[in-house]
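Page 37, continued from 36.
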């Protein structure tokens, strides 16, 4: 689960991580009032969407309006908020569809001496949490890691005790911090790691972490992602969720007990079991196709869930063929076949459907599909199913 920058900064503040003063508002008048309340001569207005690259992003229909703007009066704050709120902001991370801006963050401005990158995340290869940092903050960290991997510093930390003081001091020294900034970094780095562990995060990122002209550290930006599987331990975080920022198909799937992730391909996948789903996607690509989604209906899917799964797949205009790959273990193939037939008839499926069934009562299940009168392409094994789905998608797409 992702949250907005202003929400992440509030949690950072409570964790002892310094952040700028600021207020999230949803009206132009609110932006003007926030500017006055900050009491300075300048402020920054930042669109609040779940995507990076806002400073370079543009508002659809107003190509000169950026998602992050410096303003020097309450009137200018209101004007910028007016051009952002309710409009679609398109960035490199949103794709061409963009995101609707429903809130903006009005924040104080600092005189910045240096920008640093720092983030806590999970090193999946090493199976440990790590704190990574770079003296080149404010940049696209993925691009930096690819072009200058030596610029990325890394410290693994203990999943129980967090980052030890000597590790924080060593990292601060390698970043070239000294005096006041180095002392503040020791505390900030440790607090960020504690925050990461306490909230079961998958990412807690500050980009940039700035050194002000006075030598203090401040988190100028904040990005926090939580592990969905651990949210039951942090029910207070659920209120921070903004469903309007999420793919409606993924939200609907979760409500139906389905695991769905949208991808960029044109072959819809309906599979039971995460491992089988991953194998199915791999084979689709091996045969020259692209999966449109990851969709695991689980081992005990019923007719309603299968119907909803098809409804979600058909809600994606990119889907030009559907591949159903089911291994009947807990649920018999006959039940799956009946569910598929009923779902296809209910939704009047318009795209080619390839089905591969294996497992308990497989012959009876295949007979149900064959006798249904529906245009179902039967597959004998997974490779055959993937090959047929790729061919069907190509034919369907012209």
């Amino acid at each position: 689960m992702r949250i907005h920058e202003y929400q992440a900064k509030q949690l950072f503040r409570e964790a002892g991580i310094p952040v700028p003063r600021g207020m999230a508002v949803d009206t132009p008048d609110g932006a003007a009032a926030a500017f006055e309340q900050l009491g300075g001569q300048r402020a920054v207005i930042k669109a609040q969407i779940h995507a990076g690259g806002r400073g370079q992003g543009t508002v659809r229909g107003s190509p000169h309006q950026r998602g992050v703007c410096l303003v020097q009066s309450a009137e200018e704050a209101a004007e910028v908020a007016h051009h952002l709120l309710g409009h679609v902001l398109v960035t490199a991370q949103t794709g061409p569809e963009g995101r609707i801006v429903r809130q903006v963050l009005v924040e104080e401005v600092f005189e910045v001496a240096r920008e640093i990158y720092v983030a806590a995340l999970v090193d999946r290869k090493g199976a440990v949490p790590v704190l990574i940092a770079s003296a080149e903050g404010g940049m696209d960290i993925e691009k930096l890691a690819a072009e200058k991997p030596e610029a990325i510093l890394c410290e693994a930390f203990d999943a129980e005790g967090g980052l030890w003081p000597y590790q924080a001091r060593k990292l601060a020294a390698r970043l070239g911090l000294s005096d006041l900034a180095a002392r503040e970094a020791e505390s900030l780095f440790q607090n960020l790691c504690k925050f990461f562990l306490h909230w079961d995060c998958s990412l807690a990122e500050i980009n940039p972490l700035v050194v002000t002209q006075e030598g203090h550290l401040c988190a100028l930006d904040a990005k926090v992602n939580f592990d969905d599987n651990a949210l039951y331990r942090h029910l207070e975080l659920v209120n921070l969720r903004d469903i309007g920022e999420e793919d409606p198909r993924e939200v609907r799937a979760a409500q139906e007990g389905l695991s769905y992730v949208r991808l960029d391909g044109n072959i819809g996948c309906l599979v039971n079991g995460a491992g089988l789903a991953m194998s199915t996607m791999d084979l689709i690509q091996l045969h020259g196709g692209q999966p449109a989604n990851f969709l695991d209906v689980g081992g005990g899917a019923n007719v309603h869930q299968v119907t909803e799964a098809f409804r979600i797949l058909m809600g994606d205009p990119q889907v030009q063929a559907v591949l159903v790959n089911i291994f009947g273990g807990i649920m018999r193939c006959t039940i799956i076949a009946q569910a598929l037939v009923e779902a296809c008839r209910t939704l009047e499926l318009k795209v080619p459907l390839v089905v591969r069934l294996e497992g308990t009562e497989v012959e009876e299940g295949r007979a149900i599909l064959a006798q249904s009168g529906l245009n179902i392409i039967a597959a004998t094994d997974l490779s055959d199913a993937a090959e047929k789905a790729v061919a069907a998608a190509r034919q369907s797409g012209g």
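The two ends are 38 Å apart (CA to CA). Flag for discussion at group meeting. The chain has a mean pLDDT of 90.
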